[in-house]
Prior knowledge:
22 helices, mainly alpha, 2 strands, single chain
Amino acid sequence: MSAGIRKTLVSSIQLQDINHRADEIPQEVKEEKTYTIEQAVEEIGFGRFHVLLFLIMGSANIVEAIEIMLLAVVSPEIRCEWRLEDWQVALVSTMVFFGFMTCGVLSGYVADRYGRWKVVFGAFIWAAYFSLLTSFSPSYGWFIFLRTMVGCGVAGTSQGFVLKTEFIPAKYRGYLLPLSQIFWMLGAVLMVFLAMTVIPSLGWRWMIRISIIPSIILMFLFQFIPESARYNVSAGNVSGALQTLQRIARMNGSSLPEGKLVEPLVTQRGSFYILVSSTFRRTSMLLWYSWFVASFSYYGSVLSSSELLEKNLLCITNAESEHKINPEVTPCYCIPFGNSDYHTMLISSLGEISLLPLNIIMLNTLGRKYSMAILMICSGIFFLLLSICSTLFGFTILLFLLRSIVAMNFNAVYIYTAEVYPTSVRSIGLGFCTSFSRIGGMIAPFIAQVLMSKSVITALVPFAVTSFLCSVGALLLPIETKGRALLQNET
């Protein structure tokens, strides 16, 4: 082979090698893989971390249920101790919900701006501290003020639902989130059990002191739960999100997707204007009313049952004449709960999970919207049935079913809200919704505890009518979230 030919061949080979390497450079760049936070959560799947998350964050519902159910069981005790009238007893519940309402939006804003974990942990401490102080209340005025502060703390613990939701893969949310109702029921049962065993011997003050023990335990257990990876990404802390995801993957025995975690920085976090933008305005308006009714009907069922049992209003149309109460001489009934009353409250509390399998089936087959609509219609019907004269056994059955249905609806509304809003406004969106729900909670005591003494049917009709209207509103919601990925941004 001549030198010229060899030179030509070498030049040709070198040229091909240069071209090959030149092709490889853009190819490598082109094939660099990336993944989003949603893809990472789905790839990791369900495992040991989610079991831990479910147990610890679900237990936060125990704390919330204890603080809310305390209002029902302590009402007869403070009524007698401070000789309170109906409106004064109702004002206690109203002020608790006022604290919840005012701090609901604030806790949501802070959670979107500075993190979910900080808000929930701080709320545990706040609620436990002021609940303990409540047990030392020297007067009715101090009791109201301190319970209002407790309500403010409980508002922050509700952000735990957002934290939990943001870690759960889409196909499991419809199963795991409804199961949180078990923990709420445990809290309600625990509160009634404490009242039944502690109040007769030690009084209501020691009952409150003992009831904060779950909050103290949760403060320690909560250290095992990390900050939301979705929040970290939205705040620009990609490395923090990646560390959290890697930890979860190790616990679950799985791995992250190949490539680099990439999400755009969200500059508008915790913005109210996104909630009322053209994208979410209709959803927000209808959700605010849905939350109002969910709370109005739930606490209406709880406080109505307490009032009906305490004053023995079953089959009585005019309580004052039947019981021969003279408001000028005896401003309160001062009738403590008996064992049968506590048993009825225990059974009705158990009703909150009796239809849980049905709730899960409805949410995963009919979807969130249709489930809420059906449950609200059923709530209205059972509120009307509650006014029918029956035996204590019949009343217990009706109350059992009513508590089941209103609890199922509250569960569905919670889930829908956490799924429909993007990460940038998920916490403040839930905060606004819970604030509207507490307006319902503020009104419910005056209907269930004041108007009930005048006329049972008149007190129950508002709960039924608002429930029927809410079922229509649920059908008008523009978005169905069943099986939908959680959004990071509003677009």
